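Same chain as my last thread, 465 residues:
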Amino acid sequence: MQNKFTSRSKHLDFIIIDIICVMGSFWLADFLRHGNVDNYSEYSLMSWIVLLIHLAIVFISEGYSGILKRGYLKELKKVVIHNMELLATVLLILFFSKQSILYSRVVFGLFVVINTGLMFLLRCARKRMLKKRNASLKGKGFMLVISNEANMEHLLSNLQKAEYSNYKIGGAVVLDKDMTGQVIEGVDVVSNKDGMYEYAKSNVIDEVFLEYFGDEMADITERFLAMGVVVHVSINNLLPGTPNAVVENINKYTVVTTSINLMSFKEKIIKRLIDLAFSVVGLIFTVILFIIFAPIIYIQSPGPIFFKQTRVGKNGRRFKLYKFRSMYMDAEERKKELMEQNKMSGLMFKMDDDPRVTPIGKFIRKTSIDEFPQFINIFKGDMSLVGTRPPTVDEYEQYEQHHKSRLAMKPGLTGLWQVSGRSEITDFEEVVKLDREYIMNFSIGQDIKIIFKTVGAVLKRKGSV
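reply #2:
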């Protein structure tokens, strides 16, 4: 069952809509009654009091709980009741404070009528918008559903009934029978029990819904967690030792959700706002740096100024990463010849005095100037300011299952590995360990520390970050 905080934070859009309705309706009622702004300051103070009372009623009554499941009539009833409670509370406060003579009753009557109509219309409009958006896959996580043959059809049927959901069922796995290639309730059975981990490693899978009552349930959960995949387990199953476990609802099913990291709604909002703020500033600097370095890059090695490369992001999503080009045009072809000089132990490539790097490339790498175009990726949402470095496709295809855990969050321009002495770390397993440490202990405070350390490292030219 979701707690009250989760219920309110999930419906921040409706909260904002209602705040706009309350303030707008009160100001409009005042204008209609008085026709001018002579007593604006007096009623302005009251509008804020009304808003605070509105928020208090919402907090106490849990007015947004189940808002997406309510029909039009139920929604109208909820809005009318809320506004009657709001009016009654305001009038009682004015009566007991002996301030009622200062305010027009007509204003409050108009306010309730306007606010009831506006709040109802905008809530319904928002629901229609969400329902329309729900038909598309944009912004949805891909969920792998795992169960036995007897329960799978019923499970898939129920999971797909939700009008509003933030997931798309990307496939099903039947544990007690090999049904690979078959279709159940319109969902492809993509693997059997033995191949489901490899399937999750090789495909975009954000979440796993596990309804299984056997002895292997804990092991299945642990192995998906090791890959950085969010796991939802039926509440009827006891799972000892699962990190960040919370109880929540997915349609009609109550599950225990466990992951190596579960960011709160507030943390997601703050992290994205930080990304947007820094990306806007970073893009301005990118334009300036382009004007300065583009001619030099082109003169030393004619070709595109920007280097674009397909990288692997959160849970296997692929995107184009941008950098100022610091290498000659044949760099990728020459990489195979230089693999013997790779100083990294594992699935990354790095070497000292790389002959593929142009003279200006050495400078912009040392000063991290080449990284600035990645603010485009941050602005677009492919990357975050702080995270884990995104692997190349060929690196990703060689990953073992536990390596995928470093992709459980959006990749970043900088991260814990980079500020922990990237130039000195040569073991890929140590990189994975640091990335998992960052993900499991994520906090906004830690991100801010990493940002400051990154700035310090760049200023000191302590390796590229």
